[in-house]
Amino acid sequence: MPVTIDAWHITGQSQIDSYVGRWAELAVLLVNELAVTQALGRPRTPPADRLAALSQAFDQHGWIPTRALTAADADRLADVAAALRPAFTGAPDATAVLNETLVRHGAVPNLHGDPPILAFHRPGSDLVDAWAADAATALAMVIGVGQGQRLRACEAGGCDLVFLDVTRNASRRFCGLSCQNRAKASAYRARRRT
Fold first, then answer.
1. Which of 40, 54, 102, 125 could lock onto 121 through a cystine, CB 3.0 to 4.6 A?
2. pTM
3. Is residue 6 in some structural domain?
Protein backbone atom coordinates (compact mmCIF):
# COMPACT_ATOMS: atom_id res chain seq x y z
CA MET A 1 0.00 0.00 0.00
CA PRO A 2 1.64 3.30 -1.06
CA VAL A 3 2.26 6.07 1.45
CA THR A 4 0.77 9.42 0.43
CA ILE A 5 1.16 12.12 3.04
CA ASP A 6 2.82 15.12 1.47
CA ALA A 7 3.73 16.08 -2.07
CA TRP A 8 7.34 16.42 -1.06
CA HIS A 9 9.76 15.89 -3.97
CA ILE A 10 8.22 12.93 -5.74
CA THR A 11 5.39 13.62 -8.13
CA GLY A 12 2.81 11.02 -9.00
CA GLN A 13 0.71 8.54 -7.07
CA SER A 14 3.26 6.99 -4.76
CA GLN A 15 4.87 9.62 -2.58
CA ILE A 16 7.26 9.70 0.31
CA ASP A 17 6.54 12.14 3.11
CA SER A 18 8.88 14.97 3.99
CA TYR A 19 10.12 13.36 7.21
CA VAL A 20 11.18 10.18 5.44
CA GLY A 21 12.58 12.18 2.54
CA ARG A 22 14.65 14.39 4.83
CA TRP A 23 16.27 11.44 6.61
CA ALA A 24 16.76 9.51 3.37
CA GLU A 25 18.60 12.57 2.04
CA LEU A 26 20.82 12.52 5.12
CA ALA A 27 21.57 8.85 4.43
CA VAL A 28 22.54 9.77 0.86
CA LEU A 29 24.76 12.59 2.11
CA LEU A 30 26.51 10.38 4.69
CA VAL A 31 27.12 7.54 2.24
CA ASN A 32 28.39 9.85 -0.51
CA GLU A 33 30.69 11.78 1.81
CA LEU A 34 32.03 8.94 3.96
CA ALA A 35 31.63 5.57 2.19
CA VAL A 36 32.31 6.12 -1.53
CA THR A 37 35.65 5.10 -3.05
CA GLN A 38 35.02 6.32 -6.60
CA ALA A 39 32.93 9.21 -7.88
CA LEU A 40 32.30 10.71 -11.29
CA GLY A 41 34.76 8.32 -12.92
CA ARG A 42 37.64 9.03 -10.55
CA PRO A 43 39.02 7.25 -7.50
CA ARG A 44 38.08 8.97 -4.29
CA THR A 45 39.82 8.69 -0.97
CA PRO A 46 37.52 8.89 2.04
CA PRO A 47 38.22 12.17 3.86
CA ALA A 48 40.90 12.18 6.54
CA ASP A 49 39.10 15.00 8.33
CA ARG A 50 35.55 13.64 8.39
CA LEU A 51 34.25 16.48 10.52
CA ALA A 52 35.38 19.11 8.01
CA ALA A 53 34.03 17.07 5.09
CA LEU A 54 30.63 16.68 6.75
CA SER A 55 30.49 20.34 7.77
CA GLN A 56 31.17 21.38 4.18
CA ALA A 57 28.59 18.91 2.83
CA PHE A 58 25.98 20.09 5.35
CA ASP A 59 26.56 23.69 4.25
CA GLN A 60 26.23 22.74 0.56
CA HIS A 61 23.02 20.81 1.10
CA GLY A 62 21.41 23.11 3.67
CA TRP A 63 21.46 20.50 6.43
CA ILE A 64 21.50 22.24 9.81
CA PRO A 65 22.43 19.90 12.68
CA THR A 66 20.43 20.47 15.84
CA ARG A 67 23.49 19.70 17.96
CA ALA A 68 27.17 20.41 17.43
CA LEU A 69 28.93 17.61 15.57
CA THR A 70 32.28 16.46 17.02
CA ALA A 71 35.19 14.65 15.36
CA ALA A 72 34.25 11.50 17.29
CA ASP A 73 30.67 11.80 15.98
CA ALA A 74 31.99 12.16 12.42
CA ASP A 75 34.09 9.02 12.85
CA ARG A 76 31.09 7.05 14.14
CA LEU A 77 28.98 8.38 11.26
CA ALA A 78 31.48 6.80 8.84
CA ASP A 79 30.49 3.41 10.27
CA VAL A 80 26.82 4.35 9.92
CA ALA A 81 27.40 5.36 6.29
CA ALA A 82 29.03 2.00 5.55
CA ALA A 83 26.03 0.23 7.11
CA LEU A 84 23.50 2.28 5.12
CA ARG A 85 25.25 1.88 1.74
CA PRO A 86 23.94 -1.66 0.97
CA ALA A 87 20.34 -0.33 1.01
CA PHE A 88 21.21 1.70 -2.11
CA THR A 89 23.14 -1.00 -3.95
CA GLY A 90 20.64 -3.82 -3.67
CA ALA A 91 23.21 -6.05 -1.99
CA PRO A 92 21.82 -9.46 -0.96
CA ASP A 93 22.39 -8.69 2.73
CA ALA A 94 20.96 -5.15 2.56
CA THR A 95 17.86 -5.94 4.62
CA ALA A 96 19.83 -7.76 7.31
CA VAL A 97 22.39 -4.95 7.56
CA LEU A 98 19.64 -2.32 7.74
CA ASN A 99 17.84 -4.32 10.47
CA GLU A 100 21.10 -4.58 12.45
CA THR A 101 21.58 -0.82 12.14
CA LEU A 102 18.06 -0.18 13.42
CA VAL A 103 18.67 -2.37 16.46
CA ARG A 104 22.22 -1.13 17.15
CA HIS A 105 21.10 2.51 17.23
CA GLY A 106 17.87 1.94 19.14
CA ALA A 107 15.33 2.90 16.48
CA VAL A 108 11.96 3.19 18.19
CA PRO A 109 9.03 5.35 17.06
CA ASN A 110 8.00 7.97 19.59
CA LEU A 111 6.75 11.50 19.96
CA HIS A 112 8.94 14.05 21.63
CA GLY A 113 9.61 17.76 21.62
CA ASP A 114 7.30 20.73 21.90
CA PRO A 115 5.31 20.68 19.72
CA PRO A 116 5.64 16.90 19.57
CA ILE A 117 7.18 15.39 16.46
CA LEU A 118 7.36 11.78 15.41
CA ALA A 119 10.94 10.57 15.59
CA PHE A 120 12.56 7.16 15.36
CA HIS A 121 15.21 7.55 18.03
CA ARG A 122 14.94 7.45 21.79
CA PRO A 123 14.60 10.81 23.54
CA GLY A 124 18.02 11.71 24.87
CA SER A 125 19.91 9.68 22.24
CA ASP A 126 23.29 11.03 21.28
CA LEU A 127 23.57 12.66 17.87
CA VAL A 128 24.98 9.64 16.04
CA ASP A 129 22.40 7.19 17.41
CA ALA A 130 19.59 9.65 16.66
CA TRP A 131 20.73 10.27 13.09
CA ALA A 132 21.48 6.61 12.43
CA ALA A 133 18.10 5.48 13.79
CA ASP A 134 16.18 8.12 11.83
CA ALA A 135 18.12 7.60 8.57
CA ALA A 136 17.92 3.80 8.76
CA THR A 137 14.21 3.98 9.57
CA ALA A 138 13.63 6.28 6.59
CA LEU A 139 15.37 3.82 4.27
CA ALA A 140 13.43 0.94 5.81
CA MET A 141 10.18 2.83 5.27
CA VAL A 142 11.02 3.51 1.61
CA ILE A 143 11.78 -0.18 1.12
CA GLY A 144 8.82 -1.30 3.24
CA VAL A 145 6.24 0.56 1.15
CA GLY A 146 7.53 -1.04 -2.04
CA GLN A 147 9.65 1.89 -3.19
CA GLY A 148 13.09 0.33 -2.64
CA GLN A 149 13.91 0.78 -6.32
CA ARG A 150 14.12 4.52 -5.56
CA LEU A 151 17.25 3.91 -3.46
CA ARG A 152 19.87 3.72 -6.19
CA ALA A 153 23.58 3.72 -6.89
CA CYS A 154 24.90 5.45 -9.99
CA GLU A 155 25.11 3.07 -12.97
CA ALA A 156 27.99 4.92 -14.64
CA GLY A 157 31.31 3.11 -14.60
CA GLY A 158 33.68 4.44 -11.98
CA CYS A 159 31.01 6.04 -9.82
CA ASP A 160 29.68 4.69 -6.51
CA LEU A 161 27.59 7.72 -5.55
CA VAL A 162 24.07 6.96 -4.31
CA PHE A 163 20.82 8.88 -4.59
CA LEU A 164 17.11 8.84 -3.82
CA ASP A 165 15.30 8.67 -7.17
CA VAL A 166 12.43 11.16 -7.02
CA THR A 167 11.35 10.84 -10.65
CA ARG A 168 7.73 9.96 -11.34
CA ASN A 169 8.49 6.50 -12.76
CA ALA A 170 11.65 5.71 -10.75
CA SER A 171 13.74 5.63 -13.93
CA ARG A 172 16.79 7.67 -12.90
CA ARG A 173 20.02 5.74 -13.51
CA PHE A 174 22.82 8.20 -12.79
CA CYS A 175 23.83 10.40 -9.87
CA GLY A 176 23.93 13.45 -12.11
CA LEU A 177 24.34 14.87 -15.58
CA SER A 178 28.11 14.40 -15.60
CA CYS A 179 27.86 10.63 -15.16
CA GLN A 180 24.96 10.41 -17.60
CA ASN A 181 27.01 12.22 -20.24
CA ARG A 182 30.07 10.03 -19.56
CA ALA A 183 27.96 6.86 -19.91
CA LYS A 184 26.33 8.07 -23.13
CA ALA A 185 29.69 9.06 -24.62
CA SER A 186 31.18 5.71 -23.67
CA ALA A 187 28.23 3.84 -25.23
CA TYR A 188 28.53 5.95 -28.38
CA ARG A 189 32.26 5.21 -28.70
CA ALA A 190 31.57 1.49 -28.17
CA ARG A 191 28.93 1.52 -30.95
CA ARG A 192 31.33 3.36 -33.30
CA ARG A 193 34.02 0.72 -32.73
CA THR A 194 31.71 -2.12 -33.80
1. 125
2. 0.84
3. no
